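Exercise 3.2. Students should predict the tertiary structure of the chain below and write it as structure tokens, then compare their answer with the key that follows.

Predict this chain's 3D structure.
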Amino acid sequence: MAVPGSARLVLAEGVAHLDEPAAVFEAMLSGWERQQRSRGLLPTTVEPRVALVRRFADFAERRPWEWTAGDVEDFTVSLMSGSGRLAPSTIRGYHLSLRLFCDYVTDARYEWVEQCEGRFGRAPAQVCYDHNTMAHLTDYEGLPQRRPFGYDELQRFFDFLDDRVDRLASSGRKGALPALRDAVMVKTGYAFGLRRRELCMLDVVDLRPNPHVPRWGACGSVFVRYGKSKRGGSPRRRTVLAVPEFDWAVDGLRLWVDQARPLLDPGDRPALWLTERRTRVGVKWMDQRFSALRAEAGLDPALTMHCLRHSYVTHLVEHGYPERFVQEQVGHSYASTTALYTSVSSDFKNQTLRKALARVYEREGKQ
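Answer key:
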């Protein structure tokens, strides 16, 4: 019985192709896609992998049964050169996709070795090894310029956003409502520690009350349905609770939901964040908008929307929240990941040390 993705299921027998190498390569990609789909992987995982293999084949100007380890090395050098140099984590992801494809075409169960030997006199081989692929050498591979916002920077940015709303509203010109949305959206992303996609994909129904704080109304927590997936699986879900240190963001969120958003005449549209055309605000658009606002506020260009999430983790720790609570809030599977996001200030470290010294030496003095 043929397994999903095997050659006999995607390559017609007894057919003479005008371009046999191209036909076999396309059948390989189709079979690999079918094999991955049978494992429950989503199109958002499968399609970029298939596209990467096509890109590598175009770069090497060879078919999989002709690939060599040197092709991988040349491809890697091209990814690390020029102004468009990719991050190590991105290159490692490319290597993983190529390794998985080679594992597939060299697995005897899928019969591609037999097909290629019979048709071209050569068989595909694994070309990705430990000695020619990107290794994971450090826990954090992001740019060193990326960091959490300082308290002064946050206050400056939020004040700028508020002043922008007031300025547009008082001028009588259009744009006050979108400016309010931008301000509330940025503050919500920070106050709940959300990823960009998690923030953009929120619907109104995802706002939930917190029974312990009735005065927050329906904005006491946020139900995240589009969390970061794991190993190509479905998006993970979690509930993020509002914390009292950031209750000012809850007030702004309630204002947007109860008074501002209805002015856009949303009808039955579920999205929490709507454009003037009543479409959902997208991640790419939000990135562009954030960059423009950050530049207008005169802040460090290295600060991105994701830096607000790092700031959230850092500030929760400085406010004394337990590590496990912080980990659950941001949806990290491992505490070590949360630790990478944390960059507490020198003042916090000094305060913690003073408390420890007082606790230890006071106890010794009583003995």
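Discussion points: The CA atoms of residues 243 and 318 lie 13 Å apart. The longest strand covers residues 221-224.
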